């Protein structure tokens, strides 16, 4: 029988150790711990995410029970105090940079977005992560509530969180959205929270397309009308210009207004876009696909640990969130590289149950039965 390392050790091989150590040197501050390293911190927190551990004591007890396997991970066992201090003090920027490295690896194996056009497609949205203001006083959001906000630009090629930013809870969505550097030719689907006429003009100048919903109180005039098939739920396809005093100054360009009624729910939507070549049905489908970013937020909040935290400092919270997103990328890489039909949740459940088993990772994901172990000779105890 071929020798196999543990499932966790095989997962960590997707994180190049030399790249990790290089990043650890770049993002180092303060004195180094004598018997603790950033790699050990990383392996402990990866285990916590994959096994659903809720506290420092829970993590350390879990690692202690598997201490004889840490050698193969290149890790040492951390005490609760060391792990806590590293989370509090050691810069989370290491894991933010690691996210960028893992994203590059994932891009090489991800499928396309499923639409006929070749433009990169992104969904842009943000989600609030609630915090207790008395425990996290730095996360001031409202008078009696603390929060931070996770901003994500989700690439529909594999549904990868390609653009990620974390801000204070009061930060407006469009403020962080403007900072994201989308490639030329991209199509961005976003809700009305990102309506900013000046930004619409900037995106058009950069050759970036957007699909959003038009606000009901906006003032405009219709420049041209195109015929639509009302049987498909479409009601209009117009070229418009803004006539409001501020809107016309910030966005003097012509845009496309599309009316659509969902045949399933009966709700009417009015879309706004600067793309004039795609069919109206495709524009409606693009906005409908924006729901994938909502599903992304729902998934990570339900399956990864980003709602309860192991530390109270900003650095500890950011460390935990960035490692959770790195875990998501590892799951994505496993799914696409192994070309299996299982969902992310099914893969996560398999890993949770078999994290320290010695068997081939791909065989576990595909569903092949484990190889039979070699029976050991029973030792007879002789009593005199």
Short summary of the structure?
With 384 residues, the protein is an alpha+beta fold. Among the domains are: 7-99 and 311-366, no CATH class; 192-289, no CATH class.
- What is the number of beta strands? 10
Describe the largest sheet: 10 strands, mixed
Strand proportion, as a percent range, falls in 15-25%
* Uncertain residue ranges: 376-381
Can you put this structure into words, describing what you see?
The chain has 384 residues and is an alpha+beta fold. Among the domains are: 7-99 and 311-366, no CATH class; 192-289, no CATH class. The chain has helices at 7-12, 17-26, 38-51, 56-65, 80-89, 93-107, 173-177, 197-205, 245-250, 280-288, 291-303, 314-338, 344-354, 361-366; strands spanning 121-131, 140-142, 145-155, 160-168, 187-190, 209-213, 220-225, 234-242, 255-261, 268-273. Strand 3 and strand 4 (160-168) form a beta hairpin. Helix 2 (17-26) runs antiparallel to helix 6, helix 3 (38-51) packs across helix 12 and helix 5 (80-89) packs across helix 12. The protein starts with 6 loop residues before the first helix and ends in an 18-residue tail after the last helix. Mean pLDDT is 90; it is low at 376-381.
Observed structural traits:
14 helices, alpha+beta, 384 residues, 10-stranded mixed sheet
């Amino acid at each position: 029988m071929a020798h196999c390392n543990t499932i966790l050790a095989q997962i960590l091989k997707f994180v190049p150790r030399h790249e990790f150590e290089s990043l650890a040197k770049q993002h180092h501050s303060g004195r180094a711990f004598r018997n603790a390293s950033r790699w050990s911190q990383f392996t402990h927190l990866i285990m916590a995410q994959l096994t659903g551990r809720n506290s420092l004591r829970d993590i350390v007890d879990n690692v202690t029970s598997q201490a004889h396997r840490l050698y193969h991970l290149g890790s040492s066992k951390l005490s609760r105090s060391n792990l806590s201090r590293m989370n509090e003090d050691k810069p989370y920027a290491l894991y933010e940079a690691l996210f960028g490295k893992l994203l590059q690896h994932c891009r090489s194996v991800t499928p396309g977005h499923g639409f006929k056009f070749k433009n990169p497609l992104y969904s842009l949205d943000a989600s609030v992560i609630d915090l207790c203001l008395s425990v996290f006083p730095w996360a001031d959001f409202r008078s009696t509530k603390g929060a931070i906000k996770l901003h994500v630009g989700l690439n529909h090629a594999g549904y990868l969180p390609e653009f990620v930013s974390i801000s204070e809870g009061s930060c407006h969505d469009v403020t962080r959205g403007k900072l994201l550097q989308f490639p030329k030719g991209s199509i961005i689907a976003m809700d009305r929270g990102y309506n900013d006429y000046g930004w619409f003009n900037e995106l058009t100048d950069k050759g970036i397309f957007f699909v959003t919903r038009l606000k009901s109180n906006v003032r405009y005039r219709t420049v041209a009308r195109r015929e639509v098939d009302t049987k498909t739920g479409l009601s209009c396809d117009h070229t418009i210009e803004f006539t409001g005093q501020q809107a016309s100054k910030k966005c003097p360009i012509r845009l496309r207004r599309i009316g659509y009624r969902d045949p399933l729910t009966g709700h009417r939507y009015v879309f706004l876009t600067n793309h004039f070549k795609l069919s109206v049905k495709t524009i409606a489908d693009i906005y409908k696909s924006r729901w994938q970013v909502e599903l992304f937020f729902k998934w990570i909040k339900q399956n990864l640990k980003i709602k309860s935290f192991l530390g109270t400092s900003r650095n500890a919270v950011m460390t935990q969130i960035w490692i959770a997103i790195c875990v998501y990328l590892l799951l994505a890489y496993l799914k696409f590289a192994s070309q299996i039909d299982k969902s992310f949740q099914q893969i996560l459940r398999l890993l949770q149950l078999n994290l320290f088993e010695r068997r081939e990772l791909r065989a576990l994901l595909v569903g092949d039965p484990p190889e039979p172990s070699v029976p050991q000779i029973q030792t007879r105890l002789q009593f005199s």
